[in-house]
Amino acid sequence: MEKMSKKKWLCGLMALVCVNMGMVPAMAETVSFSITVPGEAVRIRGVKDNNDQKFYIRGASFNKDGILRCMVYDSNGRGISAVAEISKDKPEASVSYRNYAVAGSYYYIYFTSSTNGLQVTGRYRL
Asked: What are phi and psi of 57, to 5 degrees?
Protein backbone atom coordinates (compact mmCIF):
# COMPACT_ATOMS: atom_id res chain seq x y z
CA MET A 1 0.00 0.00 0.00
CA GLU A 2 2.82 2.40 0.93
CA LYS A 3 4.57 1.65 -2.36
CA MET A 4 1.43 2.55 -4.30
CA SER A 5 1.02 5.90 -2.53
CA LYS A 6 4.64 6.83 -3.34
CA LYS A 7 3.98 6.13 -7.02
CA LYS A 8 0.81 8.24 -6.96
CA TRP A 9 2.64 11.05 -5.16
CA LEU A 10 5.49 10.95 -7.70
CA CYS A 11 3.04 10.95 -10.64
CA GLY A 12 1.18 13.89 -9.13
CA LEU A 13 4.42 15.79 -8.64
CA MET A 14 5.51 15.12 -12.25
CA ALA A 15 2.12 16.29 -13.56
CA LEU A 16 2.43 19.49 -11.52
CA VAL A 17 5.94 20.14 -12.88
CA CYS A 18 4.77 19.59 -16.48
CA VAL A 19 1.82 21.97 -16.05
CA ASN A 20 4.02 24.66 -14.49
CA MET A 21 6.64 24.37 -17.23
CA GLY A 22 3.95 25.20 -19.77
CA MET A 23 3.19 28.41 -17.86
CA VAL A 24 6.72 29.85 -17.93
CA PRO A 25 6.49 33.15 -19.86
CA ALA A 26 8.82 33.89 -22.73
CA MET A 27 11.45 36.42 -21.76
CA ALA A 28 11.61 38.24 -25.09
CA GLU A 29 9.30 38.70 -28.01
CA THR A 30 10.78 37.76 -31.37
CA VAL A 31 9.21 39.50 -34.36
CA SER A 32 9.35 38.44 -38.02
CA PHE A 33 10.09 40.96 -40.75
CA SER A 34 10.16 41.03 -44.54
CA ILE A 35 11.53 44.16 -46.14
CA THR A 36 12.82 45.51 -49.46
CA VAL A 37 15.20 48.46 -49.25
CA PRO A 38 14.99 50.99 -50.60
CA GLY A 39 11.38 51.06 -51.70
CA GLU A 40 9.10 49.97 -48.89
CA ALA A 41 8.58 51.62 -45.52
CA VAL A 42 11.91 51.27 -43.79
CA ARG A 43 10.76 51.32 -40.19
CA ILE A 44 8.93 48.73 -38.13
CA ARG A 45 7.47 49.37 -34.68
CA GLY A 46 7.89 46.86 -31.87
CA VAL A 47 7.45 46.59 -28.12
CA LYS A 48 10.43 45.87 -25.89
CA ASP A 49 9.27 43.25 -23.42
CA ASN A 50 12.40 42.59 -21.37
CA ASN A 51 15.27 44.41 -19.66
CA ASP A 52 18.04 42.99 -21.84
CA GLN A 53 20.00 45.95 -23.19
CA LYS A 54 20.83 44.44 -26.59
CA PHE A 55 19.07 44.34 -29.95
CA TYR A 56 19.26 41.05 -31.86
CA ILE A 57 18.58 40.50 -35.57
CA ARG A 58 18.86 37.48 -37.85
CA GLY A 59 18.33 37.37 -41.59
CA ALA A 60 16.82 34.12 -42.84
CA SER A 61 16.88 34.89 -46.57
CA PHE A 62 18.53 37.45 -48.82
CA ASN A 63 17.67 37.84 -52.52
CA LYS A 64 21.17 39.14 -53.37
CA ASP A 65 24.49 40.11 -51.85
CA GLY A 66 24.37 43.30 -49.84
CA ILE A 67 24.41 44.65 -46.31
CA LEU A 68 21.25 45.48 -44.37
CA ARG A 69 21.84 48.09 -41.68
CA CYS A 70 19.44 48.27 -38.73
CA MET A 71 19.17 50.72 -35.87
CA VAL A 72 16.67 51.12 -33.02
CA TYR A 73 15.03 54.52 -32.42
CA ASP A 74 12.74 55.64 -29.61
CA SER A 75 9.34 57.25 -30.18
CA ASN A 76 11.00 60.70 -30.23
CA GLY A 77 13.20 59.74 -33.19
CA ARG A 78 16.42 59.42 -31.19
CA GLY A 79 18.75 56.60 -32.16
CA ILE A 80 19.28 54.48 -29.07
CA SER A 81 21.32 51.59 -30.46
CA ALA A 82 24.51 51.10 -32.39
CA VAL A 83 24.08 50.03 -36.02
CA ALA A 84 23.65 46.29 -36.61
CA GLU A 85 24.74 44.96 -40.01
CA ILE A 86 23.65 41.64 -41.50
CA SER A 87 24.32 39.99 -44.87
CA LYS A 88 24.23 36.58 -46.54
CA ASP A 89 27.72 35.89 -45.19
CA LYS A 90 26.97 37.22 -41.69
CA PRO A 91 23.21 36.83 -41.13
CA GLU A 92 23.19 37.46 -37.35
CA ALA A 93 24.10 40.50 -35.29
CA SER A 94 23.54 41.91 -31.82
CA VAL A 95 24.31 45.43 -30.68
CA SER A 96 24.04 47.22 -27.35
CA TYR A 97 21.73 50.11 -26.68
CA ARG A 98 23.46 53.47 -26.16
CA ASN A 99 20.57 54.69 -23.98
CA TYR A 100 18.56 52.59 -21.55
CA ALA A 101 15.70 50.84 -23.39
CA VAL A 102 12.65 50.57 -21.14
CA ALA A 103 10.63 47.34 -21.16
CA GLY A 104 7.03 47.87 -22.28
CA SER A 105 7.88 50.85 -24.50
CA TYR A 106 7.50 51.09 -28.28
CA TYR A 107 10.61 51.38 -30.41
CA TYR A 108 11.20 51.59 -34.15
CA ILE A 109 13.68 49.59 -36.18
CA TYR A 110 14.98 51.50 -39.20
CA PHE A 111 16.42 49.54 -42.10
CA THR A 112 18.78 50.92 -44.75
CA SER A 113 20.99 49.50 -47.45
CA SER A 114 23.16 50.81 -50.26
CA THR A 115 22.14 47.78 -52.35
CA ASN A 116 19.15 48.67 -54.51
CA GLY A 117 16.27 46.19 -54.21
CA LEU A 118 17.74 44.14 -51.36
CA GLN A 119 15.00 41.87 -50.00
CA VAL A 120 15.51 40.33 -46.58
CA THR A 121 13.27 38.22 -44.36
CA GLY A 122 14.18 37.36 -40.82
CA ARG A 123 13.49 37.96 -37.15
CA TYR A 124 14.50 40.54 -34.59
CA ARG A 125 14.25 40.92 -30.85
CA LEU A 126 14.31 44.28 -29.10
From this structure: -145, 145
